[in-house]
Specification:
Number of domains: 2
Strand order of the largest sheet: 1-7-6
Region (Disordered): 78-134
Family: Belongs to the cytochrome P450 family.
Structural class: mainly alpha
Bound molecules: protoporphyrin IX containing FE
Biased composition (Low complexity): 102-114
Keywords: Heme, Iron, Membrane, Metal-binding, Monooxygenase, Oxidoreductase, Transmembrane, Transmembrane helix
Strand content: under 5%
Order of helices and strands: HHHHHEHHHHHHHHHHEEEEHHEE
Binding site for heme: 411
CATH architecture of the largest domain: Orthogonal Bundle
Length: 471
């Protein structure tokens, strides 16, 4: 009875809008109970298991916003439909803007548009692995490597309070990934005040902003000494743009700090889990591992190590496909970044009211049999080879493969991420063979979190094949 009433309210909202039908809802928690025990992007994948995933009603009254995906969220046709462009494709007026979670809002406020740029690939250091006896925790190593690389590209790596800064970032990741009462009742100031997560995020924001103030001061001083012309990292670029004052909207210091934080945070939380998945899939698929290792070792045999300056001329073909296949199966942001519809529009004949949060289930698109015939869940990089099946492009033009999103709000770090992943993976495969310690079966389950990461940490034993120079 209660369910029926809730369903009716979702279908006919009294405003004459044609909303897609939704799941039955409960007071206060809305549709939340449909998610119990499932990963959200899995639960929202199958319209038979969850009919509302195909025709969900974004009813703003009872339903916590991020549990209400509209139907087009899992259909390339709908994503491409001209009247609604969730990721700002070619500048549609109803293009979305992300409605941040309360923790993210607290940690990264004051909110502002992020700077658009593609950071230059920088040299990823080979992880400091030596001999092939002990198993290593790949997550720990890869996260440290990627955070280090991203931080150096964003603001250099020599600054005071580096450790405090890194700890604060770790804390943001834990808090932002967690379940948070303030997201359930976003309009309630009391809940927001009572929420420990929001308070903690505000404290962390103050700490990171304070450290960033010091770093900015140092950068300004150095720029002054160099005469202002040379730029060494992203922070230099942003400070120079600010000083030149050529932008129509002034670039204030808070926007600069936010851009730096988002880049470090967004970059490491997506790139490192992708690398961990790639290594897991390779160990899980020995033939693919064999082929990609042979390719990398042949390409760099003459150099004795994987050199960033030789990466382009090495002409690796299969390794990029391994990365692409990893991104298809393990899209780090399964729902991309949720967007708020900025003006009413129609998609597939349904009304999308202004202010509704729209999520694109990129994970489901990447595993949809309709677009990935054969075995969509299998790890098969060959599917992207000429004549091997799909020629889908991942740069936002083909909506069945959207690891970096599409349109105006597409990931600005794509080039940096791809270069970083190629360099790191090539180094790992060039110097070492990898095996799962003991006779343990490799657990390939996903965990719930800010990004789609592995449930269990990947423990692998490196076996040294080519000595690492200088180690
Ligand atoms: C495997 C690596 C990565 C993946 C899969 C990835 C994916 C994404 C996705 C899906 C979005 C949202 C796009 C949309 O909703 O249309 C995004 C946004 C963003 N990414 Fe990445 N990303 C990666 C690496 C990076 C790196 C390395 C950086 C920075 C150094 C970065 C910075 C950002 C920023 C700043 C945004 C927000 C853009 C905006 O809202 O305008 N990302 N990323």
């Amino acid at each position: 009875m209660l369910g029926k009433r809730c369903r009716r309210s979702a279908m006919a909202n009294g405003h004459g809008l044609r909303l897609p039908p939704g799941p039955w809802q409960l007071p206060i928690i809305g549709s939340l109970h449909h998610m119990i025990g499932k990963l959200p992007h899995h639960a929202m994948r199958d319209p038979r298991a969850a009919p509302w995933a195909a025709h969900a009603a974004p009813d703003r009254r009872g339903c916590p916003r991020w549990w209400c995906p509209p139907p087009f969220a899992r259909s390339p046709t709908a994503i491409g439909e001209s009247s609604w462009r969730p990721t700002g494709h070619t500048g549609g007026s109803s293009a979305g803007s992300p409605p941040p979670s309360s923790s993210a809002r607290a940690a990264f406020s004051p909110s502002a548009p992020s700077a658009r740029r593609r950071p230059p690939p920088c040299c990823a250091r080979a992880p400091p692995l030596r001999r092939g006896s002990r198993a290593v925790d790949m997550r720990e190593r890869l996260s440290a490597l990627i955070t280090d690389t991203t931080m150096r590209a964003a603001m250099g790596d020599r600054f005071k309070d580096r450790e405090v800064f890194l700890r604060a970032l770790d804390r943001i990741i834990v808090l932002a990934a967690g379940f948070n009462m303030a997201d359930l009742w976003p309009s309630s100031r009391i809940v927001s005040r009572l929420s420990g997560a929001v308070r903690h995020c505000e404290e962390i924001r103050d700490t990171t902003f304070r450290i960033l103030d010091g770093i900015i001061e140092e950068h300004l001083e150095k720029m002054g000494n160099r005469g202002g012309g040379e730029v060494e990292d992203l922070l230099d670029v942003l400070l120079k743009v600010q000083q030149d004052g050529d932008l129509p909207i002034p670039l204030d210091m808070d926007v600069i700090k936010l851009a730096i934080l988002l880049d470090i945070f967004g970059g490491s939380e997506t790139t490192a889990p992708t690398l961990e998945w790639a290594m897991a899939e390779l160990v899980h698929n020995p033939k693919v591992m064999e082929r990609v290792t042979a390719e990398v070792r042949n390409a760099f045999a003459a150099h004795g190590s994987v050199r960033e300056d030789k990466l382009a001329e090495a002409g690796l073909r299969y390794l990029p496909l391994v990365i692409l296949e990893t991104l298809r199966l393990h899209t780090p942001l399964p729902f991309l970044i949720p967007q708020a519809c900025q003006e009413p529009c129609r998609v597939l004949g349904y009304d999308v009211p202004q202010g509704i949060t729209v999520m694109v289930n990129a994970w489901a698109l990447g595993r949809d049999e309709q677009y990935w015939p054969g075995d969509p869940d299998a790890f098969r990089p060959e599917r992207f080879e000429a004549g091997g099946g799909s020629a889908a492009d991942f740069k936002g033009a083909d909506f069945e493969l959207l690891p970096f999103g599409s349109g105006r709000r597409m990931c600005p770090g794509m080039g940096f991420a791809l270069a970083n992943m190629e360099l790191a993976l090539a180094s790992l495969l060039f110097h070492f063979d990898w095996e799962v310690p003991g006779a343990a079966e490799l657990d390939m389950t996903e965990a719930f979190g800010l990004t789609a990461h592995r449930k269990s940490r990947l423990l692998l034993r490196p076996i040294l094949r080519v000595p690492v120079p200088g180690v």
